[in-house]
Automatic annotation (TrEMBL):
This is Glutamate dehydrogenase. The keyword Acetylation does not apply. One of its GO terms (biological process) is L-glutamate catabolic process. SUPFAM superfamilies: Aminoacid dehydrogenase-like, N-terminal domain (SSF53223), NAD(P)-binding Rossmann-fold domains (SSF51735).
Length: 424
């Protein structure tokens, strides 16, 4: 570590710590009532449930599930459900806070929620995952609903998981209620374009950021860490625009071609595990080496806390666009600010997912499906509007892109709280 790095970050920063730090930075630039800021430091509620599962061999096992509700001043709670061994109450609270900011910066009528089950989904059979999901839906039924809290897919869950969840809720309600979740297959009320939306929005925001700095997209090199649903769709979008995607990675490693990869020929990790690191490319790298490539744009789209105080000074990219949630720690952010490397934050870059979830919710409520073309056109419009709102704050204040994004979000949330007042 250098003298400028005040602390070692060998340990990951929690989502709650990061979310609260970002809230404080935004609040410092605004005249917001301290009571509202203090309210936003904490979740409205956290629900913990115990889920019994009968395994395929007849044995029974208990699992713990969570659903965190952060803030609903602008509308129902909205956020994913993840199945992962490291799901925790603290993680769900932090991620629900991020969802509040994300919905606000996109000006969606939702608040922030997040939840999940402490389980390794790879250790579940298909039937076990279905039974676990259906029971989880029943345990959460008192606190979810299309006007209350609307879950969506996340790590370890997918459209089929949402279909099971929706069906279980509907059977208990006595009526088909597609709007209780988003991210479903279109055949049961899902929206076209939903799975591709987070990566597509990363591509749109990267394009807009390039235009802001007057970069020629056809002369721009891009490296994408995490060639899964988000990373692959972002890479292919930018490739189609003419950017040169020179490196991508999966969990096993990275591939590199200085002349640019054919992103349509590289199957993403979700489509075919191992295809990225096993692809016939001129060079192979580690995930860590990809982060330090000399490229114009780096898109960390895998997991959180990959850009830290330990590697931030070795990053050679001229711009970072966050595809994953929370890939940059607080210390890394400070180093990038010092080095004048712009970081476009996750809460706007990957907000296409929740934006198309909003479109799906509207379609479910109105029982009228949209075409893929309409979904993509509406997403383009919403992302560009949000970018202009953030750009306006960035140009008007001496702040980072992240601060500008949070300022937009906090102004909207605080205004809603001030207008509604406090229930006695």
């Amino acid at each position: 570590m250098t003298a400028a790095d005040p602390q070692s970050e060998s340990e990951s920063e929690s989502a709650v710590e990061t979310a609260r730090h970002q809230l404080e930075r935004a609040a410092a630039h605004l005249d917001v009532d301290e009571g509202i800021v203090d309210r936003l430091r904490h979740p409205t509620s956290v629900h913990r449930v115990t889920i019994p599962l009968e395994r395929d061999d007849g044995s029974r096992e208990m699992f713990t599930g969570y659903r965190a509700h952060h803030d609903s001043v602008r509308g129902p709670y909205k956020g994913g459900l993840r199945y992962h061994p490291e799901v925790s109450e603290e993680e769900c609270v932090g991620l629900s806070m991020w969802m509040t900011w994300k919905c606000a910066v996109m000006d969606l009528p939702f608040g922030g929620g997040k939840g999940g089950i402490v389980v390794n989904p790879k250790e579940l059979s298909g039937d076990e995952k279905e039974r676990l999901t259906r029971r989880f839906a029943e345990e959460l039924r008192p606190v979810i609903g299309p006007m209350t809290d609307i879950p969506a897919p996340d790590m370890g869950t997918d459209p089929q998981t949402m279909a099971w969840f929706m069906d279980a809720y509907s059977m208990q309600q006595g009526e088909t209620t597609p709007g209780v979740v988003t991210g479903k297959p279109p055949v049961v009320g899902g929206s076209y374009g939903r799975e591709e939306a987070p990566g597509r929005s990363v591509g749109i925001i990267t394009r807009e950021a390039m235009a802001y700095y007057d970069w020629d997209i056809e002369e721009t090199t891009v490296a994408v860490q995490g060639f899964g649903s988000v990373g692959a769709n972002a890479a292919r979008y930018l490739d189609d625009l003419g950017a040169s995607v020179v490196a991508v990675s999966d969990v096993d490693g990275a591939i590199y071609d200085p002349d640019g990869l054919d992103t349509t020929d590289v199957e993403d990790h979700d489509e075919s595990p191992g295809m990225v690191s096993g692809y016939d490319a001129p060079e192979t790298l580690t995930n860590e080496e990809l982060l330090e490539l000399d490229v114009d744009v780096l898109v960390p789209a895998a997991i959180g806390n990959v850009l830290t105080g330990e590697n931030a000074r070795d990053v050679e990219a001229d711009m970072i666009v966050e595809g994953a949630n929370g890939p940059t720690t607080t210390t890394a952010e400070r180093i990038f600010e010092e080095r004048e490397i712009p970081v476009i934050p996750d809460i706007i870059a990957n907000a296409g997912g929740v934006t198309v979830s909003y479109f799906e919710w509207l379609q479910d409520i109105n029982r009228r499906a949209w075409t893929l073309e309409r979904v993509n056109d509406e997403l383009e419009s919403e992302m560009c509007t949000a970018w202009e709102d953030v750009r306006t704050e960035y140009d008007a204040r001496d702040v980072t892109w992240r601060d500008a994004t949070y300022i937009v979000a906090l102004e909207r949330i605080a205004s809603a709280h001030e207008t509604r007042g406090l229930w006695p």
